[in-house]
Specification:
The chain folds into 2 domains: 230 residues, Rossmann fold, CATH 3.40.50.300; 104 residues, Nucleic acid-binding proteins (OB fold (Dihydrolipoamide Acetyltransferase, E2P)). Helix content is 22%, strand content 36%. The protein contains 9 helices and 21 strands. Strands 7-8-9-3-10-11 form a 6-stranded mixed sheet, sandwiched between helices. It has a 5-stranded antiparallel sheet with strand order 2-1-4-5-6, covered by helices on one side. A hairpin with a 2-residue loop joins strand 13 and strand 14. Helix 4 packs across helix 5 and helix 5 runs parallel beside helix 6. The two termini are 31 Å apart.
Length: 359
């Protein structure tokens, strides 16, 4: 992957006219983001953090108050510049597929193509096969399943070979099992065409499992950007740590690259000067090990079974509550006495550090 398909710098956006001297509501606060060509970047954050507004500014559906947006090497948004959405070479897959109900599947896919390409049908046929919809081109959208409709929407966005495809919570309307299958199918479609994509989602599992890089947004700002492993394993603050996956926050005392906690002495992942003295350690549930012991000092309070694994809620002797992820074969149940230990490395923050207002 070389170069940037999309570059956002200093993007600012507010909504609502000032009332009685009060300022408009800020939604984006100087957002910077690079989307390398050929990559899939997930913008992850809770409702109201500004992620959909960011997508709409890249698409050209909104005008920025300040900052710039470049698509490829072309400035499409900036001081005195606002290129219309249809001239940005950007494909959009909205939350609802927004397929044309009166057009066939093939006609939906070919809608954005020049007339000559639509008549030739070659590009549409290629995308039907890529979406595993060969032979279904003459069907109407209502004759397809939800997952098939989603693949049609992605194929339609890919048809004119855009510089970037923007996906706004595209899997939210699908049931859990189908959502997992479809998002990986869509990822494969994007990879097969070499497309660049920007995915907006509030689903941490979705972002971590399909994206090359993840940008975490909070209160209109990108607070961390990195690979899924970096964002999950090296969160920049407690807000990111608790939003991106489950986290146990344990008080401890750190020194010399280790932290002493209620579940043992654990190595610290990052050598930071702020990780000395009284700290809060971030311990993921899979780093908490539980074993049955007749006279154990901890007790299992609850067990949530997810099929592939289970989550235990464990209460330590000092009253500390922890979550521990165990395999589906683990037979421990509520009321059982256990011993608990931890596995590093862990990330630490100064005791009393804020979780952030959002997430």
């Amino acid at each position: 992957m070389t170069g940037s398909a999309v570059r956002v710098q200093g993007l600012v956006k507010s909504f609502g006219p000032p009332r009685r001297g009060a300022p408009a509501t800020p939604v984006l606060r100087s957002v910077d983001l690079d989307v390398p060509s050929g990559s899939l970047i997930a913008v992850l954050g809770p409702s109201g953090c500004g992620k959909t507004t960011l997508l709409r500014l890249v698409a050209g559906f909104e005008r920025a108050d300040a900052g710039t947006v470049e698509v490829g090497d072309r400035l499409v948004e900036g001081p005195g510049v606002h290129v219309a959405p249809e001239r940005r070479r950007v494909g959009v897959v909205p939350q609802e597929q927004a397929l044309f109900p009166h057009l066939s599947v093939a006609a939906n896919i070919g809608y954005g193509l020049p007339a000559a390409q639509r008549r030739a049908g070659r590009r549409v046929a290629e995308l039907l096969e890529l979406a595993e919809l060969g032979g279904l081109g003459e069907r109407m959208p209502h004759e397809l399943s939800g997952g098939q409709q989603q693949r049609v929407a992605v194929a339609r966005a890919l048809a004119p070979a855009p510089s970037v495809v923007l996906l706004d919570e595209p899997f939210g309307g699908l049931d859990a099992a189908l959502r997992i299958a479809i998002r990986h199918h869509v990822r494969a479609m994007l990879a097969a065409t070499g497309a660049t994509a920007l995915l907006v989602t509030h689903d941490q599992e979705e972002a971590l499992s399909v994206a090359d890089r993840v940008a975490v947004m909070r209160a209109g700002e990108v607070v961390q950007e990195g690979t899924p492993a970096e964002v999950y394993g090296r969160p920049v603050d407690l807000g990111v740590a608790t939003f991106v996956g489950e986290a146990n926050l344990l008080p401890g005392r750190a020194s010399d690259g280790f932290v002493d906690t209620a579940i043992g002495r654990l190595p610290v992942a990052i050598a930071r000067e702020r990780c000395d003295g009284e700290v809060t350690a971030v311990v993921r549930p899979e780093q908490v090990h539980v074993r049955p012991v007749e006279n154990g000092t901890a007790i299992i309070e609850d067990r949530l079974f997810f099929g592939h694994d289970a989550m235990l809620r464990v209460r330590l002797g000092d009253g500390t509550a922890l979550q521990a992820r165990v395999t589906r074969r683990a037979t421990m149940s509520p009321g059982e006495r256990v011993e608990v230990s931890g596995e590093g490395p862990v990330v630490c923050f100064p005791q009393g550090a804020s979780l952030g207002s959002d997430p």
